[in-house]
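Deliverable D2.4 — example input (structure tokens):
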């Protein structure tokens, strides 16, 4: 079968790999229909992803498809079912797993990151890594479910409540999905961004306070909007260390800072102590697929608006080249395997 392989910076190609077979009674084989391209995939393509350096990698962790075969122990999925993939596979035995936090398992496997991913025609994984899709979610939209689970995890980790105010730095796909998720929870959401294309996307999905960071200092804007109290939650989806440091200054008392982008920053422990701030990191997601799929009607319209580019799987390389040019007007890029046959969309 056909797979898209990345060998490192500037080396990527389609290749023929053996079609995967069921590995045990609990495994499920799926024919892939759609895959989203995420920042992580772009890093792999550019040879900058630490876990993939020196490895050949079939990327893709945001994907959905049709069940073609199930092992004898699988009773609740059948060939023909539409499913979305949950990319984390944890051991179930280590300290993190015993404490219900498999997303930080000491031997975590993440599809398309430290093992093969969904940019290939078929994929086999255990039953628990597949979630049934209702037929009103199109294949293109299904590719956005995984990043929406990341957003849901951030809200859970930040203990977001309807009465909270949230400032998000960066209106890339994760920032936008986080804004969308938080808005539907009732929060007052502010998003700051430099690029006009992304600002336009944020306005398009109706983020209440869109801060053009070229024109206004994002921290000052957030203080003004919150009438001097400061946001209750600041999420860094932009990876700008200075904004993380600023967050400590502007957060409300008992505020929470979530370093979503995961860059190194300096933290003033004195300010953090004085205001009793929390730094709550958020990795991947845990148990968020079922609720996100159940709520997806809420996100559907905005999710569709975030999909700015759809490529045929045959054009994956083109899609990656385009993605790595980082056009600011680009939201989510989705690859499609059998577009003409999509009866759902
Ligand atoms: Zn992703
Ligand atoms: Zn574990």
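Example output (designed residues):
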């Amino acid at each position: 079968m056909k797979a898209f392989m990345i060998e490192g910076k500037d080396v990527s190609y389609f290749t023929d790999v053996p079609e995967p077979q069921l590995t045990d009674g609990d495994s499920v084989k799926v024919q892939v229909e759609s895959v989203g391209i995420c920042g992580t995939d772009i890093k792999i393509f550019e040879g900058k992803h630490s876990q993939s350096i020196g490895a050949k990698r079939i990327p893709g962790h945001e994907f959905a498809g049709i069940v073609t075969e199930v092992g004898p122990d699988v009773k609740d999925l059948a060939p023909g079912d539409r499913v979305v993939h949950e990319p984390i596979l944890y051991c179930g035995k280590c300290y993190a797993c015993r404490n219900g936090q498999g997303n930080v398992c000491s031997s975590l496997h993440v599809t398309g990151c430290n093992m093969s991913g969904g940019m290939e025609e078929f994929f086999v994984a255990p039953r628990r890594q597949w979630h049934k899709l209702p037929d009103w979610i199109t294949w293109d939209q299904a590719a956005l479910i995984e990043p929406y689970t990341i957003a849901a995890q951030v809200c859970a980790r930040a203990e977001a409540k309807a009465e909270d105010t949230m400032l998000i730095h960066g209106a890339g796909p994760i920032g936008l999905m986080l804004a969308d998720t938080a808005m539907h929870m009732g929060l007052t959401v502010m998003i700051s961004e430099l690029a006009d294309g992304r600002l336009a996307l944020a306005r398009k999905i109706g983020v209440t306070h869109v801060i053009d960071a070229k024109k206004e200092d994002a921290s000052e804007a957030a203080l003004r909007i919150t009438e001097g109290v400061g946001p209750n939650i600041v999420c860094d989806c932009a990876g700008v260390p200075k904004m993380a440091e600023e967050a400590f200054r502007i957060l409300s008392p008992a505020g929470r800072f979530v370093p979503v982008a995961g860059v190194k920053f300096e933290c003033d422990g004195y300010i953090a102590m004085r205001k009793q701030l929390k730094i709550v990191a958020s990795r991947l997601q845990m148990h968020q697929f079922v609720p996100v799929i159940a709520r997806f009607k809420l996100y559907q319209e905005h999710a569709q608006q975030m999909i700015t580019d759809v490529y045929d799987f045959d054009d994956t390389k083109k899609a990656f080249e385009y993605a790595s040019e980082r056009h600011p007007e680009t939201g989510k890029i989705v690859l499609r395997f059998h577009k003409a046959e999509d009866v759902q969309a």
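The chain has two domains: 2-147+284-341, 159-279.
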